[in-house]
Amino acid sequence: MAIIIQLIISMVLFFVLFYGISFILNMILKTTWLMVVVYPFIIVLLMDEISTFSYLTKPGQSFKAAYDGIAGLDLPNILMLGSGFIGVILAGFTIRFLRNSGYKMF
User: Fold this and answer.
1) Which of 104, 94, 79 is nearest to 35 (CA)?
2) Pick from 103, 98, 90, 75: which is nearest to 33 by CA?
3) How far is CA 54 from the centre of its chain?
């Protein structure tokens, strides 16, 4: 039971965190879907357990290790990362709605 509560809290936190980051980035950079493109790269950098510099020095081994890290995710991690991605997408729709409603600040 405690694991399910932790999962739900983690999903909400990932959603709110990435919604907020995406909303602020979209507002500052005047783009709408930037974080939707950047989010998968952020997740790969978080989940691969490889130095970012090794992608330049040993690309074959690094991309294989990154693929193995992503393919080896279990269901709770997939749900948390998925809720973060939903937050990023929802922030894009929110920015788009605000711009279409006439708010020039967004």
Assistant:
1) 94
2) 90
3) 22
